[in-house]
Hints:
Elements: H1 3-14, E1 26-33, E2 38-45, E3 48-52, E4 61-66, H2 67-74, E5 87-90, H3 93-102, H4 116-200
Parallel strand pairs: 1-4
Antiparallel strand pairs: 1-2, 2-3, 4-5
Amino acid sequence: MMYEHIVAKLRETYKELDASFVGRHFAIQFNIWGEGHGALYMEIKNDRVFIQPYEYFDRDTLITTDAETLLGIADGKIDPTTYGDLYVEGDFYALEILRELTYIPVEEPEEEEEEPEKQSIIVRAEDAVEAVKEKAEDAVEVVKEKAEDAVEVMKEKAGEAAETVKEKAGEAAETVRKKAGKTADSVKKKAGKTKTGRKKK
Length: 201
């Protein structure tokens, strides 16, 4: 960008601005380095802003920067009070003046609220999770109860089986005793007959 274009741009930007807040005469010289290099000044008097393509030896402040930064300040995109690429000599009130004249703070975008439909989906999902948890807990309790019932039934069945075995064993023992007794009586009778037969001879 040419030096002349920079001066014209600044004149156009500041010509209608109200500088009454400054409250006194104030002069700022800008030394531009790089593209469009040169010197110009901003003079504030009678509550108005004037831009001239010269040096101002009786200045209040000297600011050295590049053309892009200077135009960014004029366009309200750069806050000169916080921007680092500025070399300032003299009264730093100049930065406050430049900020007040044009700077437009960038507002942080507000967080968008979730759409009602999305919120509804989230709520339904959370409800479904809770329902699954409840069902799972109920299922665990049912399984525990069934297992305990099965154990009791098995205990009862085992007890009944043991009693049956005892009864069967008792009956078998009694049968054996009876048969043993009959066998013993039979053996005695036969033995007696044998003795009698021997005596007769």
